[in-house]
Design brief:
heterodimer; A: MetI-like fold; B: six-stranded mixed β-sheet; six-stranded mixed β-sheet; 22 strands
Chain lengths: 232, 350
């Protein structure tokens, strides 16, 4: 059996670690906003709701490169947002932050859709019953909505995590493909396929990807079962 | 409790307008589905906002379009029990019961947890998950949960719909008594005239989404009988059962009534169809029927090709249905003393 170092180069290992970092931070950062967005879309009525729903879901149907290019423009120093951030000393383009932001935008609709699906299934009369028993709006969210949507939140987080692991198009444009800085697993694999004799290395990274994704699914299943066991 | 409602609400093409006041603690909303009774109760609970008008309980204004007052649902102190219980699936029975209690100030809590769980026969279920409970148990928990929030008013929206017949009759036997015991006024919503008559004193009926009239429930039932010609059933609360051979004897307004059905409870509701009573001018010497009661005719009214006689029997009231020719032949009129003869098997448990 080949030793670990011979299968993965230092660059490969840093790509795997970067991928995990990006996917984990993108998922964690998105949870609060994802929950609030799903709550508003599921429970509130307001003019232009369909429009908001459409914009949030847009990254699902747009080519990732388009999203990446639009992000690149917004964060470049020639435009307002990028200029403002650069004055604050924050640089998004070609940094790990850029990779995280790209993943957040691309995975957000998956997270919101899952949570919203869970919220849509809560019988509204149950919410009214809670309110009629004296629970205010925030109290109702914390005591009823949140516990009843943990399952769909876990599903959403898994989907978002997996989507972030595979993010290629938007990330490559916003964050570039800098080994050790922004080169995640998919970008590293892409590089290997362009180098003569890189097939074995590419394949090893593919297997690493499969392993990480399977682990994520496995954890998802355990959390789901745990939740079901608690409910029965 | 004095409830005053005067509101208007347009929902799509449906116009609801309601104007009534009641000081009864047992109010009924009666009507077929889609008549607006659930919408009106949601408006009273603060779930739906009316277009204009006022709602108040005693001195407390809950809604007033003029004064721009709209008290939110959680501050109205009106607990709602929906059809199908709607317990919180992630909480245990005890946590469900205490949901409203915990959100009430200590000084405002006036229902004792232990006494309530014992009355509702829930003590043995407290630590259970709600998933494996029966429909009747769930509905009892929902009622307990509402009561424990010490509300000023409880709205019961078709609480027995969906339960099987046997369970329904078990619950309705003591449902009214529970609210009386804990002295909580309620609005009972149903399309069943039988439930209305058992549960409520005053009723509001809806026609085309508008309601202005509030009637004594018993009067409403009789009006319904006059207009629809529906077969009327007397509802009797019989008490203190004593076994007599294979029959059972009960007390009813100083009268003894013999039935074929025995009940374990000290008070039991029975139905007696108005057509199951035979009227004699003179007391028959002997009859196969086990119940012969003497009373006075207090009212006579026509229902299509039948005549209804309202009888006062030692303070208890019964309606007997006969045909026109019988009334003419016997020359029955108000104030006559007659004997009402009823078979023991004519009384059926509700």
């Amino acid at each position: 059996m080949m030793p670990f170092q011979e299968i993965f180069s230092d660059g490969d290992i840093s790509a795997i670690i970067l991928s995990l970092k990006v996917a984990t931070s993108a998922t964690i950062v998105s949870i609060p906003l994802g929950f609030i967005t799903a709550y508003i879309l599921s429970f509130k009525k307001f003019p232009g709701k369909n429009m908001v729903d459409g914009i949030i879901n847009l990254p699902l149907v747009l080519p990732p490169v388009v999203v990446g290019y639009l992000l690149l423009l917004s964060f470049s120093k020639n435009y307002y947002l990028g200029k403002m951030l650069s004055q604050m000393g924050i640089n998004i383009i070609f940094s790990l932050k850029g990779a995280v932001i790209a993943s957040v935008i691309m995975g957000f609709p998956l997270l919101v859709r899952s949570i919203k699906l869970g919220m849509d299934q809560i019988d509204r009369n149950m919410i009214y019953a809670a309110k009629s028993l004296g629970a205010g709006s925030l109290d109702t969210v914390i005591s009823i909505v949140l516990p009843l949507t943990t399952k769909s939140m876990v599903v959403g987080m898994t989907l978002m995590f997996a989507r972030s692991l595979g993010e290629f198009g938007a990330t490559s444009i916003v964050a570039g493909n800098i080994p050790g800085v922004t080169q995640t697993v998919p970008l590293a694999i892409y590089n290997y396929t362009n180098i003569p004799g890189g097939e074995t290395k590419a394949l090893s990274l593919c297997i690493a990807s499969i392993a990480i994704s399977l682990t994520a699914l496995y954890i998802n299943n355990i959390l789901q079962k745990d939740k079901e066991a608690k409910n029965n | 409790m004095n409830l005053i409602v005067d509101i208007e609400k347009k929902v799509g093409s449906f116009n609801l307008s309601a104007k009534f006041s009641s000081s009864s603690s047992k109010i009924g909303f009666f009507g077929h589905s889609g008549c607006g009774k659930t919408t009106l109760s949601s408006i009273i609970a603060g779930i739906i906002k009316p277009d204009k008008g006022t709602i108040s309980i005693d001195d407390k204004i809950l809604f007033s379009s003029e004064k721009k007052i709209n008290v939110p649902t959680n501050k109205r102190n009106i607990a709602v029990v929906f059809q199908g219980a709607h317990l919180f699936p992630h909480l245990s029975v005890q946590e469900n019961l205490k949901y409203g209690l915990k959100r009430r100030k200590n000084s405002k809590r006036n229902i004792d947890f232990q006494r309530l769980t014992e009355t509702l026969n829930l003590s043995h279920l407290l630590d259970r998950k709600i998933q494996n409970l029966s429909g009747g148990e769930k509905q009892r928990i929902a009622i307990g949960r509402a009561l424990l929030s010490s509300p000023d008013l409880i709205i019961l929206d078709e609480p027995l719909t969906g339960l099987d017949h046997h369970l329904k009759s078990r619950i309705i036997q003591y449902l009214g008594e529970i609210f009386t015991t804990f002295s909580v006024p309620y609005i009972y919503i149903s399309h069943s005239i039988k439930e209305m008559r058992i549960m409520t004193e005053e009723s509001i009926t809806f026609s085309n989404g508008s309601t202005t009239e509030i009637l004594k429930t018993e009067d409403m039932a009789r009006n319904l009988l006059k207009t629809a010609g529906a077969s009327y059933k007397n509802i009797l609360e019989l008490t203190d059962p004593v076994k007599k051979g294979d029959l059972c004897e009960y007390n009813w307004h100083e009268n003894r009534i013999i039935t074929t059905e025995y009940s374990d409870y000290s008070r039991t509701l029975f139905e007696l169809p108005s057509s199951g009573i035979i009227i004699f001018k003179n007391k028959p010497e002997s009859a196969s029927a086990r119940n012969i009661l003497e009373g006075t005719i207090t009212d006579i009214f026509d229902v299509s090709n039948r005549v209804c006689l309202v009888l006062n029997i030692n303070g208890g009231e019964l309606i007997a249905q006969v045909v026109h020719s019988a009334v003419n032949e016997m020359n029955l009129k108000k104030g006559d003393r007659v004997s009402a003869v009823m078979k023991a098997s004519s009384f059926t448990l509700i």
